[in-house]
Amino acid sequence: MAKETKQFQAEVKEILDLMVHSLYSHREIFLRELVSNASDALDKLRFEEAANSELKTSGAEKHIRLTPNKDEKTLTISDTGVGMSYDEVLENLGTIARSGTKEFLKKAKDLQDSPELIGQFGVGFYSSFMVADKVTVVTQKAGLDEAVIWESTGDGSFSIDKTTRPEGNGTTITLHLKDFGDDESAQDFTDQWTLKSTIKKYSDFIDFPIKMEVVREEPELDKDDKPIEGKTKTTIEDETLNSRKAVWLKDPSQVSEEEYNEFYKHVTHDWSEPTERIYYKAEGAQEFTALMFIPSQQPFDYNYRDTKWGLSLYVNRVFIMDNCEELLPPYFRFVKGVIEANDLSLNVSREILQKDRQIQAIKKAVVSKLIRSLKQMMSKDREKYEGIWKNFGATLKEGLANDVGNKDKLQDLALFHSNETGALTTLKEYVERMKEKQKEIYYITGESIKQVECSPYLEMLKEKGFEVLYCVDPVDEWVMQSIAKYDEKDLRSITKEGLELDDEDEKKAKEKEIKTKEKEYKGLIDTIQGAVAENVKEVKISPRLVDSPCCLVSGAYDPSARMERMMEAMGQSMPKSKRIMEINPDHPVFAKMKGLTEDKQKVWAEILYNQALLTEGSPIEDPLKFSKQIASLMTETNA
């Protein structure tokens, strides 16, 4: 049969133009696509052999081979797979009949940002033209004696003829590599290290060995096996480039702990062992396999704003996407691992991937599995769970504020420090320990345990024996407001107004006492109010202080002082709300103040206000003035 020259289908011309002119920064993708195609061909041959015991094949080992040639500037990818007939070559390499092609072309402009998924549309072969100015394909279908040669320079046409393939069934693709000149981003795909690292990145878990002859330079040895200076010898070895250890597809009972740990280190580059491993195989309407790990420590860049996170996505063992954030909510960003979803319908842009129903279904199932696993761990191995909470609890709590659907489940996983016990406690455990007369769940937010445990806000609660949760993670300002109620009991910040600690009889007695004190100290209260009126909306007798002279309380619906500080630190300053200044009239300082002049009372009022700011962790507006006031007070003979 004579050699024929044919024109590409119109859609192929568009795709070739896209490959050649648009995807400059992602050229290495071509190798993943060609290796993936070769793996598919080997899979198909294995199926054909199982279905037809009479099928005539070469009997060669099922493998994929890379052959770089620096002198000729070529790279050859060959396999011993099922191969293609003449008609199949025309169908697969000259036209595109897949329904995904038109969608691919519609979204073509997105590929410059996210070209990772081109193979999902059956056009992966054409990525060869990103790196080659001529591509030659020699292929022989299993069961046939003749081969086909296909060749194109990507200019809109191709040639096709019949030939022979000495190796028998399989396909050989030879890429005549382009010269990219001064392009510093261009990789040399005849370089052994480049090929090894690309295979490791994209195709490490392909089921078939990917082989390459590796040239090694070794020192020549003398008779005593010592290196001879200046003399080397060249050896050529056949090396398998991929590990083939897709452990997530194996039955967990057949995988050792060492294999799992090795795999974890490979995918995360974390050389410590993980704290927990979670395996999940979903079957039915949505089929996928997930192998996830929880690290034993925070990565060094964990809290960096630009740190990437998410699971690695594989389809038929082929790496599709790293850091796939669409598979996990942000509050599980500490979880590492892989998901294989062979039936996944992917598209070319992450924006569309976010909206994919299958992805959302996988995400929902994975989150449910993670929550169940953590709950089980909390019940069976509290020590291990608390270790995870120490590292990632602040992250996990974000889900309480952001994931309404899982809020009830997540709040049972939350752990808190408290003034009652040195150990971490759950909300459920807190409720079980509540005093008979206690109506609400009390908490305080702050910068650290050390700061809040000495807070004046705790004084009356300690006296009554009421437990208070210490919330010292920045996210707690949002989290505790999101929970609002647990087990029919309100959560109450002890730094806000409206704190009621007494039963009815105690309340009546306290109200009577406060009214008496208000009359007694009315003049002083008015003076203090006038002195701090710029920052304080009200001065009143406190129901919560025992030993401290005063404290600043936020309105029931106002942001806390800590929230204001945090927002300001993030560059999102908000109008400062005036606070309520609560005073303890039983403290000796107020009896002393009553005997001072009004001017002195105002100075002392300012000192007390600034002391209250420091006590809660807020900065004072004029530190120099405050220092002078304290120094002056210390030097007074009657102080």
From TrEMBL:
Localization: Cytoplasm
Stored CDD domains: HATPase_Hsp90-like
NCBIfam families attached to this UniProt entry: PRK05218.1
Organism, as annotated: Pseudobacteriovorax antillogorgiicola
Region (A), start-end ranges: 1-350
Gene Ontology molecular function terms on file: ATP binding; ATP hydrolysis activity; ATP-dependent protein folding chaperone; unfolded protein binding
Keywords: ATP-binding, Chaperone, Cytoplasm, Nucleotide-binding, Stress response
The keyword ATP-binding belongs to this UniProt entry's keyword annotation: yes
Chain residue ranges for the region called C: 566-639
Function text: Molecular chaperone. Has ATPase activity.
Residues the entry annotates as binding ATP: 33, 37, 79, 84, 92, 99-100, 120-125, 171, 350
Annotated ranges, domain Histidine kinase/HSP90-like ATPase: 26-181
Protein name: Chaperone protein HtpG
PANTHER family: HEAT SHOCK PROTEIN 90 FAMILY MEMBER
Family affiliation: Belongs to the heat shock protein 90 family.
One Gene Ontology cellular component annotation held by this UniProt entry: cytoplasm
Record-linked InterPro entries: HATPase_C_sf, HATPase_dom, Heat_shock_protein_90_CS, HSP90_C, Hsp90_fam, Hsp90_N, Ribosomal_Su5_D2-typ_SF
The protein's assembly and partners: Homodimer.
